[in-house]
Structure prediction request, 158 residues.
Amino acid sequence: MRRVYGAGTGHLLVLLLCLVVAALAARLVANDPAWPRMLVWFLAAVVLHDLVLFPAYAAADRFLGTTAARPRRVPVVNHIRVPALGAGLTFLLFFPGIVGQGEPALRAASGLDQDPYLERWLLLVAAMAAVSAVVYGLRVLRAGSPHGEQQVVHRERQ
Prediction:
């Protein structure tokens, strides 16, 4: 199977499951009169990601990898990547609320306004950065102890 397909059976099953879910979603959307507009948004998102966002975050990650590549007991790269990814994904998820789009629809549906979205998103990003910094600090302290240094070196060899 691996020689013919290029990956294991589990990969093929997950891929087929994804295709089934995509087909079901396409079937649901096909009856919606707004499907052309959804298609335009989808294609614009693909183009925006592939031509703008991907090169931007790939360049930022490469820069981070070169500046954080100095030999350290505890690498800092993932302690920056994880909160940055969390901030980016939550920004994309809550973008309309953060920038104030669609307030009449939200107010009609829930009776709430969008005022706290930006503030709460910033607090969430600060919390993710703070947790990452605390975890990094704990790892540095642990690596500084006589037993911690051996554990870090042992993990890097694996």
